[in-house]
Amino acid sequence: MPQISTSDFKGGISLDLSDGLFNVVTFQHVKPGKGGAFVRTKLKNVRNGAVVDKTFRAGERVEQAIIETKELQFLYNEGDTYVFMDQENFEQLEVPREVVEDIADYLLPEMTPALRFYGTEIVGAELPASVELTVTDVEPGVQGNRVSGATKPATLETGKIVKVPLFVNNGDRIKVDTRTGEYLTRA
Length: 187
Known about the structure:
single chain, mainly beta, 5-stranded antiparallel sheet, 0% helix, 52% strand, flat
């Protein structure tokens, strides 16, 4: 793995430290009046999402982690295992639910999420900012219940439940924000 200096830190760069694999969220070079300079960072653990603060000496060298992103087609899931297919060589990969936890509620067969690889290990997955899903179960809006901003729960084709406006009905296609899980608009 290549080593980089703390002066080369940028937001989003990945580091392979002794206590795990991290992405740099923020960094600040500090030169106090007395003593040596240092770099104060906020790091996000790639595997579990925990955010930690860590301080490095200025010029200290650390291992840079090379994380590759590849779009794979989602095929199906069996219990806690999700099966994806590489569209170039048709190889199938079994991924544990913990890795795709953030996007599992939005996955439908034939979607192509971007999986992040560190070597051969899959360390994360992401979908576009929004996806279109079909409403499978929602109660009809009650006449006269038109308070501004009123919502009702709706079950989507993936099983996820989101709050939707009263005018949304069974069979409607809606856009859902994959980062917050909120209803955006009808598709």
